[in-house]
Amino acid sequence: MTSAGRPSKAGDDRILPVTRWVAVFIIPFLVVADVLLYAFPTRAGELFAWAIAPPLSAYLLASAYLGGVWFFLRVATVRGWHRVRHGFPAIVLFAGALLVATLLHLDRFSHNLSFGVWLTLYATTPFIIAVLAVVQAPRDPGIPDAADAVIAGFARIGLALIGISVFAFGAIMFAAPEFAVSFWAWKLTPLTSQVLGAVLSLTGVVNAALLWDSRASSFRILFQAQLLSLSAIALSLIAGRDDLLWDRPMTPIFIGVMVVGLGLYGGFVAWCEFSLRRAAASRVTVA
Question: Domain map of the chain by residue range?
Fold first, then answer.
């Protein structure tokens, strides 16, 4: 505490105004990308940064952006840095991977305004978000909220292992895109393989944080965003079912993983909501 009795900056759990404003700045770009990729996937070469075929790849990238909209909206509005902090390393890795993929495949991109925006955002976002994460890091008090819940060890380890497995698979798609092209559930190019690998990295980085943080309040928003993305992917598989290659074993495997993932993530999000609401109600009753 300071001499005036106010909390010191370290551990005050405050989200700085600059962090909120960066989130507000990013949201419109994600919304526009979602509209373009969902509504006009076959015109991505004209309206987006590059031509994406088949549409299912565009839908999958859009699903990550959809989760990002929710995440950054909450960064801009929620109280408590610890509630969103574990999403920042995931964004850094995702954006950084897309920057690398872009530089490796510049010949695939369109020479239009969308590509200029794409390149500018991915050349700056990973570094800006990384700096914000470092500056904000000491503000996490490291203790549960007044109305919080503890995530059981088996759930934390299980979700972390799922995330790490998905991350490893995404890393293979990014590091060996030609190999991924040969077995994936729909047609890919080396560029779309690396983009999808970057998308898969998100859940791995977020879930790994469960190994050292047991606060339900730290993951409520992040898993809401992930569940939103998973739901969007599930709908995309229905909309883009004609793109699926049913002669490849990866197709039923991917669909099965999606179904299981929806069940697990949906159950975890429901548990977080119930537990945190119950904790809040108990606190009010005691007070």
Answer: 17-282
